[in-house]
Design a protein that fits this description.
By secondary structure, the protein is of the alpha/beta class. Helices cover 36% and strands 15% of the residues.
Length: 504
């Protein structure tokens, strides 16, 4: 059957509510909930045939001839609620930071040399110390000289460097001798910020980042120097555990979204996202598609999984620039209420994607009332944070009709554990955001939902991000952004492409 075909098991007269989860790097999940909040099974023969949980551990999908069930992870239950261990978390964070900084400067002179040897041994990176800009003239991939592979005749052609066979080294051109020690002491954030500061360049930013990601599981070879890398992650995790995150309140969420999407950055999305203005991955069902073709395919995929009928009432949580709502209202004759906390996106959507069947609201999802046949959310869940996951799912449950479907499209994280709120993306791109892992989607609040479909197409984000970089790399007509900002944005697109390529 076609990958978008709905399960025949959803047909019939059973009274159930349904939830559809769409995730880019993780998966697409279709969940169905019993109207009595007790049942966990739905008849069907094809629903989960293509489901492949990451590593097969966090979410154990049980497939029989007629039933599919999402079970809790084996062993100890993981709780969503944070635990506060001390009276003053700020003092703990400051104390941990001071201890970490003190440790980092022990034998600082030898740290750079140790990291250099570690990288040379375990990657295909060739480190070049730059003494004159003339040495690297014409060799750097930056701005208009980025050359991402945005499409190909085969999957192998698009994902050309993953197998690593017979490839020349990727060059890391270092301008300041302090870069290596900065990376060792500050981790991924130091790696990113030193690039933003112009302290290094490369002939392939995405591939260099991919090679650096290969080091994640080998840092024990650094011996005691690994402590500084672990420390940066611990500090980021402590920030999320001990300090309240802004997104947990409506006003905090409004502040975060306002930082991400404002009037000053709209022109970036207009240049970058293509004609459909979708700031989420397209579905590159075919590797030779353009970005616009892939985004159209993703919108059709969403519509098919929602199983739309004329006259249905839909809620979209975080409608972005309004393109998907306009597409569904126009093609399927459905009524849509969309909510957002971005004033800039609200204005853009009303100007470019208004439709008689659409009501765009400036509102937090927690304030929406009423009942809907379908609820869907594309690329908004990353802003919620684990402390609010239960609130989010329970709100959707309350507004969804019996036998309704909820589709959630989200990026995800392959490794369980605490989220590092001190990372580059959290600091510069999605303030206080967090990517969910599989086990977080199987917490106790999910017991009343039934997982009907789970589809992963995170590899499509590789091509999407490359297309975005290719669209924006000249920065034509955007002189108001300084060099550091432009390098930050290019690094964001390239490093995320590398992370998706690595299935991270």
């Amino acid at each position: 059957p076609h990958p978008t075909q709905m399960s025949p098991g959803r047909q019939g007269s059973m009274r159930r509510r349904s939830l559809l989860l769409l995730a880019c790097p993780l998966a697409v999940c279709l969940l169905q909930q019993s109207a009595s909040r007790g049942g966990a099974f739905v008849p069907g023969t094809q629903t989960g045939r293509h489901l492949l949980p990451l590593h097969g551990r966090p979410c154990d999908l049980v497939a029989g001839s007629t039933q599919f069930r999402c079970k809790s992870p084996p062993g100890r239950r993981h709780r969503v609620a944070r635990q506060v261990f001390i009276e003053n978390p700020v003092i703990t964070l400051l104390g941990a930071a001071a201890a970490l900084l003190g440790f980092q400067f022990i034998s600082a002179d030898s740290n750079g040399s140790a990291l250099r040897d570690f990288i040379t041994k375990n990657t295909n990176i060739r480190i070049v110390d730059v003494t004159s800009e003339a040495e690297i003239e014409g060799k750097i991939a930056s701005g208009p000289t980025h050359k991402p592979v945005i499409r190909g005749s085969s999957v192998e052609e698009v994902h050309w460097y993953v197998d690593g066979k017979d490839l020349p080294p990727v060059h890391w051109y270092i301008r300041k001798s302090s870069v290596l020690n900065r990376v060792l002491s500050e981790g991924g954030l130091g790696f990113a910020e030193s690039y933003m500061d112009g302290e290094w360049d490369t002939d392939d930013l995405e591939r260099l980042t991919y090679e650096m990601l290969r080091l994640e599981d080998r840092t024990k070879e650094l011996g005691w120097r690994e402590v500084s890398l672990i420390g940066t992650i611990v500090l980021g995790a402590l920030k999320g555990k001990l300090l309240p995150m802004a997104g947990e309140s409506v006003s905090g969420a409004e502040e975060n979204i306002g930082k991400t999407y404002d009037d000053d950055t709209i022109k970036i999305y207009e240049r970058m996202c293509g004609k459909h203005m979708q700031y989420s991955c397209g579905w590159f069902y075919r590797p030779d598609w353009t970005l616009d073709e892939a985004q159209r395919a993703k919108m059709d995929l969403v519509a098919t999984k929602l199983d739309l009928k004329p006259g249905m009432k839909l809620l979209e949580i975080g409608f972005g620039f309004g393109a998907l709502a306009n597409y569904l209202a126009s093609k399927y004759d459905v009524q849509i209420v969309g909510c957002t906390l971005s004033k800039a996106q609200m204005k853009w959507a009303q100007t470019h994607n208004s439709h008689p069947n659409i009501e765009f609201r400036y509102s937090d999802y927690r304030k929406v009332e009423g009942k809907f046949d379908r609820v869907y959310s594309i690329g908004m869940f990353e802003h919620v944070g684990r402390a609010s996951f239960e609130t989010y799912f329970n709100k959707v449950y309350d507004v969804l009709k019996d036998d309704g479907i909820f589709l959630l499209h989200t990026m995800g994280w392959a490794k369980r554990g605490e989220w590092n709120h001190n990372a580059f993306v959290s600091k510069y791109i999605f303030p206080n955001g967090e990517l969910p892992t599989q086990y977080l989607l199987a917490e106790e609040f999910s017991d009343k939902w039934h997982l009907e479909d789970w589809q992963s197409f995170g590899k499509s984000y590789v091509q999407t991000l490359r297309c975005w970089l290719d669209n924006i790399k000249t920065w034509e007509g955007m002189d108001e952004y300084d060099t550091s900002f432009k390098r930050m944005w290019e690094y964001y697109l390239a490093c995320c492409a590398a992370a998706f390529e690595k299935r991270r």
